[in-house]
Amino acid sequence: LQAFGRNGYARMIDYNIRLAAYMEERIRTTPGLAIAAPRELSIVCWRAEPDGVRPDGIDALQTDVIAELERRGVAMISNAKLLDGRTAMRACITNFRTTPDDIDAIVDASLTIAQELAVR
Q1: Nearest to 37, CA basis, from 55, 20, 57
Q2: Phi, then psi, of 74 in degrees rounded to 5
Q3: Can you name the residues that pair with 89 across neighbouring β-strands?
Q4: Do residues 44 and 24 lie in contact, with contact meaning Cβ atoms separated by under 8 Å?
Q5: E strands in 12-115
Q6: pTM of the predicted model, to two decimals?
Q7: Blockwise average pLDDT, block size 10, the chain, 120 residues
Q8: 3-class SS at 91?
Q9: Are 107 and 30 in contact, with CB atoms under 8 Å apart?
């Protein structure tokens, strides 16, 4: 607060929330990806659901994509266990240096990696 002031801090939080809304829209409009839970502030939960994945393997695919995103240096995201027991990928945008390009990279890579893993 001392460095940016209350208004500066509020602008950073608002920026992160707008990035999360952008991420949500990118996921909604990307075939093979699906929003898994309502967006809350700067938190987005989604699932990769590419063609060819058996229903009993879709939860494992989510955790494999998360690990591969980190291994490739794209992003560090976490998993979320949904109320219905399914596993989802979870991004919590809190760094004010995050850009729309970063969001695009995460969305695009999560689908690409899921598709790569689905054919194995």
Answers
A1: 20
A2: -80, -50
A3: 46, 79
A4: yes
A5: 33-35, 43-48, 78-81, 87-92
A6: 0.91
A7: 78 95 98 96 96 85 97 97 95 95 98 90
A8: strand
A9: yes
